[in-house]
Each structure stands twice: as C-alpha cells, then as structure tokens.
Amino acid sequence: MKVNIEELSSVERRVTVEIPAAEVDKTLNKLYQRLGRQAKIRGFRPGKAPRSILEKYYGPQVVAETAETLIQDAYPKALDEIKLEPVARPSFDFGAPVAGSDFVFKVTMDVKPDFELDSALYKGLKLKEPKLEASEDEVASRLEALRDRQAMLAPLEEDRPAQIGDVVVVDYKSFIGDQPVEGGAAENMEIELGKGQAQEEIELALVKAKPGDQVEAKVDYDENSPNEQVRGKQVRFELNVKALKKKMLPDLDDDFARAVSPEFESLAVLRERISSELAEAYQQQKDQALRAQILDQLRELGQFDVPQSLITAEIESMVEDFKNRLRRSGMDPDQAGLDSAKLGEGFRPEAEKKVRAGIVLGRIAEMEKVDVGQEDIDGEVGRVAARMGQPAGVVKDMYIKNNMMPTLSARLLEEKTLQVIKASANIELVDPAELAKETEEKGQS
Predict the structure, then answer these.
(1) 3-class state of residue 431 by DSSP
(2) Whether pLDDT at 4 is above 90
(3) pLDDT at 45 over 80
(4) DSSP letters along 85-124, please?
(5) 232 vs 180, 223, 226, 228, CA distance in Å?
(6) What's the rounded Cα separation, in Å, for the pair 41 and 231?
(7) Is the pLDDT of residue 445 over 70?
(8) What are the DSSP calls for 330-367, one per residue?
(9) Res. 47 pLDDT band, cuts 50 70 90
(10) pLDDT at residue 41, as a whole number
(11) SS3 for 417?
C-alpha cells in the first residue's frame, strides 16, 4: 500500500492511497466465492454458478462492496502510517475496482491547525464574576409565589367595587369598529387585577366595577402584535362583570409545606430547598458568565486558519438549536418558511468564534495535560442519573446505546480545562447589572 499526502492549506490535506492489484484481486475473489455459495441462480445448483454468471448478475454489487471493503481496511492503516487525525468527517473520491489493476482512492480532510501558544497568554486572565447570592427576601418571595399558586378563590362577601388584588369574573366581546373580532369573545374569564393578566386599559376599566356592571375598554395594538387580526388597530372590549372573588392564601406553616409536596416535612425543609435551588441557579449563572468571558478571550489567542468543516458543523448545530427553540415555543419552523441556508449564514460569524475558541481550549488541554478518566465519566453519569431519578446503570446504557459517550467526554474535557484556566485567573466580583450592560455593549460593538 502506498500513501501520499498533499497539503492543500494549513488545515486541509488530501491523502492518496494506492492498493496493489493483488489485494484487489484477493478481495474480489473472496467476495465472489462467498456470493457463489449463497446465490440462487436458475439452472445452477448452489455453489456451482461460474464466475462469469455471477459477474453478469451481481457485478456492480460486488464491485461496490469490494471498494467499501478495501477502503475500510486501508483507510485507518493509512492514517496511522502518516499520523494524521481528521477533525471532522472526510470526503472520499474513488472509482470502481478493476481486477488486475491497482485501486486508488483519495481522502480530503481537515486537520487541527498547528500554532504556538504561550501559557502566559491564558494564565492570569482578568475575569468578572457577577455577585449573586440567595437572600432571605428572595426565599420569602418564592414562598409567596407558592402560596399564591395554592390560594383558593372565594366569593367577595363585602359589598364594594373591585380593587387591586381582586379576581373579577367577566364575559367579554371585542370589536374592531362594529365588526366582532374572530375568536375575541369568552365567558367566565377570571382576571386578577394588578397582575398584568389583561391589558392595562381593561384592568383600569374593571377597577371600581361591581357585579352587574357593563364596562368598556379601548386597546390600541401596535404593529408587532402576534395576532395579525388586531395588529396596528384599535379594539373595543365590552365587558360584563359577573362576580368578584377574593384570593384566600394558606397559612405559611408546616401544613402548607406538606401540601406543596409530601417530601417537605416542614416549612424549614421547604425553605432550605428553595435556598439551595436559588444558590445552584446563581452558581450556574456565575459559571456561564466566566465561561463566556474565558472563551471570548481565548479566541483572540493564536494565529491560525479555522477548518471549514468545523464551522459548517457548528452552523448546522446552531440552526437546529434555533429551530428546536421555535418548536418549543409552539412554532413550526418549516411552516414559517425559514431558509436554513440564509439562517446559517447569519450564524457564521458566531460559529467561527466558537470554533476558534474551542481549538485554543483544546490546545490548552494538551499543554496542561488535562484528561478525562473513567472516574470523571462515572461521576457525571451519576449526577445525571440523580437529576433524572434513574439508576446510574440505566443512564450509562443510554449514553452508550445512543453513541453519546464521545460527546460526554468532550464536554467534561472542556469543563476541566476551563477549571484549570479559572484557577489561575484574577476574578473580580461585580454588580450583575453592570456586567450585563457591559456584555450587551460588547455584543453590539
């Protein structure tokens, strides 16, 4: 086997592999022999059909299988010989194998860029961490939100008009001019005043109303309204007030905690859970902010060409993520007529930034000898299993079955490398609002 390398660019190679005719003939003969034992051809007993007949009926199939067999055997050996590792799926170019002739195939692949990186460039990075801590006020606010969801509605006993905090039960109809709005009517609609459940004009019209009152509200919709029917138009609402109700909040005690979930045996346990969840959420925000800053600085390190195959793969991933977000919001991206190609071009600059940062991060992992062991993988599988409420073995089998282990290992390697960078960084605690403003301004520049 002969192997030749051609350098197309600093990150692209074309590898030509030449397989001797003897190996081609050996593979062809082996496949025809196997086929001869299995093929059922009228007029011939199994295993007795001559080669010429087999070639007539199955020639193209055997030739294709021969090419596949030769490439599958020779390709990894060629990579091992020339010490190349493609960063993405390569492209193959080859013709049909011919008996008595050498078989040549070519592989075009992207490889990792080779560049110098001084460790002083990524050690001691200046980072800003948002100062986020779960306060007692936030815990109390979460408890109040839970109480609100557990509240019961009761008829208002006192004779008075509606006020902020009351729940007003109404029947309503809506009109543009004198024409009813399609789908713009409902009965027994419950609106809690002061919670923004209805347009401000409607809530203002209902304040001070009593059961039996007929009130009217006019709402001007802007050009960005999701409802095309009312976009840029004034809609008149006729509301019939049927009843007033008052929210009855449960007492904040151990019984309330157990009503939220049997796992909370007391209010103190519920408070602790809320505090823990807030702390975890804030830690994730802090980690994400630091990660974004690190990657933002890393992509400026090192001068190298970026493999286009990696950018293409990242664009495809970003487009698919965008479509999935639309689906989760209830919109079908196909029916919306989104052009994936145009969408992808819009993502290209950001995709290149992400790939560039990822390449630098990979080089740092090599320089710092960061690796992912079985202990790391088992630990992460265990954490995922705990969140899913599943045995670790079941989750591990899922990862293996769906070929997700390489992705998991890559993510863990990235996280461990980021930890190494953070360990030597100069981290300043800053106001979250100031950091958010600074990040927004940087994104617009």
Answers:
(1) coil
(2) yes
(3) no
(4) -BSS--EEEE----TTS-EEEEEEEEBPPP----GGGTTT
(5) 16, 5, 11, 9
(6) 71
(7) no
(8) T--TTTTT--HHHHHHHHHHHHHHHHHHHHHHHHHHHH
(9) low
(10) 74
(11) helix
Helices (H), 187-266: 200-206, 254-260
Q: How many residues are given for the chain?
A: 445
Q: Which structural domains are found in the chain, ordered by start? A: 2-110 (3.30.70.1050), 152-248 (3.10.50.40), 257-304+368-444 (no CATH)
Which structure tokens are listed for 364? 């740092």
State the pairing for strand pair 426-430/91-94: unpaired
- How many angstroms separate the CA atoms of 98 and 67, rounded? 10
Q: Is residue 341 within 8 Å of 47, Cβ to Cβ?
A: no
Assigned token pair, 49: 């059909």
Contact 289, 130 (CB under 8 A): yes
Instruction: Give the H or E element holding residue 23.
Output: helix 21-38
DSSP state of 373: -
Cα–Cα distance measured from residue 424 to residue 294, given in angstroms and rounded to the nearest whole number = 12
In the chain, the amino acid numbered 16 is T
The C-alpha angle 16, 3, 114, rounded to 5 degrees, equals 80
Buried b (16+ CB within 10 A) or exposed e, 114-153: eeebeeeebeebebbbbebebeeeebeebbeebbeeeeee
